[in-house]
Write a structure and sequence with these properties.
Elements: E1 2-8, E2 14-19, E3 40-45, E4 49-57, E5 61-72, E6 87-92, E7 96-99, E8 103-106, E9 110-114, E10 117-121, E11 124-126, E12 139-141, H1 143-146, E13 174-181, E14 184-199, E15 202-207, E16 214-219, E17 223-230, E18 233-243, E19 247-258, E20 264-269, E21 274-278, E22 282-285, E23 289-294, E24 297-307, E25 319-321, H2 330-357
Parallel strand pairs: 8-12, 22-25
Antiparallel strand pairs: 1-2, 1-10, 3-4, 4-5, 5-6, 5-7, 8-11, 9-10, 13-14, 14-15, 14-24, 16-17, 17-18, 18-19, 19-20, 19-21, 22-24, 23-24
């Protein structure tokens, strides 16, 4: 989980801070519940942050009754120049019901937004009112996890076998993604995505469906992140960076996917160099392009346009096209080839003409 908080400053502007460090978390006040008290998860972390989840029980179901998140806006380190002071608490009455003796699972990204706070959750597995001290093996899925993108089955093998070739897939649907901060839209991306990966010598192909894909991210002065997530993709991260203070490029891709056999496929590469363009412009490539993350994982992009920095008024700036789209390079090639051919013809004609001019004379 993480928490994004938007707050007003003393200069009447707004800033955004994201809280995602739980390395110092404690769980004081968490209880399993008894005859008089319901189960509760209570977490304390960072400088004055706390998060509490309450559960209630009915005849055949239990509920995630409410989620509370508190933060200390007086902390100048986390909230510099904050106008308000004191402890702020945001409470969401979730009221989500789950059958008793079931684990609630939601790998997809879910968000709660209230009073300037966005709570983001993913890979959630929770069971309250555990019976007889044994965690259930039955799962109750959230709606987003019930919509599963088809994955080419991965067949386990007991002996070495040659790599199989996947069935070619149709062109993926183009999706539009964006990231916002306190100043508005800070990252724009439009693209069709096709994932190609090899696991246990079996090649699989997945087309990302933008209609069932969630997205989030963040923008910093020197880096920007776009994270995609759906039912069988835990996360697909595109990390952009600034180089030489005047250009941007795709520096890093991280992916983690759930496979049909229950295993997880994960790859990360933070040493890439794709989609290079000047700051203040966008990068565009309409033709199919391949981002090779590793020998086992590649991303094919279609109708790509991306701008991770200096987005103005939520619109793309002038695009720098990729070399695959740039047909103008053919003009000098054609002209050069034509001139070369003309020069060759002139030279041959000259040589032939010289030979004919000496045909009727003898040397003295």
């Amino acid at each position: 989980m993480n928490f994004t908080i938007r707050y007003e400053t003393t200069s009447k502007t707004y800033k955004t801070v994201t809280i995602s460090d739980f390395s110092t978390a404690t769980y004081n006040g968490s209880i399993c519940g008894d005859g008089q008290n319901n189960p509760k998860i209570a977490v304390q972390f960072g400088s004055g942050f706390s998060w509490t989840v309450n559960f209630t029980k009915e005849a055949s179901t239990y509920s995630i009754d409410g989620i509370s998140f508190s933060y200390n806006i007086s902390d100048n380190t986390t909230f510099p120049d904050a106008k308000d002071k004191g402890i702020v608490t945001v409470h969401d009455a979730v009221g989500f019901r789950i059958p008793l003796n079931n684990i609630f699972r939601c790998n997809s990204l879910s968000t709660l937004e209230k009073n300037g706070v966005v709570q983001s959750y993913w890979d959630v597995h929770v069971q309250a009112f555990v019976q007889n001290g044994t965690v259930s093996t039955k799962e109750f899925l959230c709606e987003k996890d019930k919509t599963i993108t088809t994955v080419v089955p991965i067949v386990p093998t007991t002996a070495p076998s040659p790599t199989t070739t996947p069935t070619p897939k149709e062109k993926p649907e183009v999706g539009s993604y964006s990231v916002n901060n306190s100043n508005g839209t800070c990252l724009l991306a439009t693209m069709g995505l096709q994932l190609n990966f090899t696991h246990d010598k079996v090649v699989s192909v997945i087309n990302i469906n933008p209609n069932t894909t969630d997205f989030t991210g963040s923008c910093q002065p020197q880096t920007a992140l776009l994270r995609l997530n759906c039912s069988n993709i835990k996360y697909l991260d595109f990390v952009f960076a600034v180089k030489n203070e005047n250009r941007f490029y795709l520096k890093e891709v991280n992916v983690s996917m759930y496979l049909v056999n229950g295993s997880v496929f994960s790859i990360a590469n933070n040493n890439l160099s794709y989609w290079d363009a000047p700051l203040g412009s966008s990068y565009m490539c309409n033709k199919e392009q391949t981002v090779s993350v590793s020998g086992a994982f590649q991303i094919n992009t279609f109708d790509l346009r991306v701008q991770p920095f200096n987005v103005m008024e939520g619109k793309y700036s002038t695009a720098q096209e990729c070399s695959l789209d740039d047909d103008t390079i053919l003009i000098p090639i054609i002209v050069g080839a034509g001139l070369s051919g003309l020069i060759i013809v002139i030279v041959i004609a000259y040589v032939i003409g010289r030979r004919k001019s000496y045909a009727g004379y003898q040397t003295l």
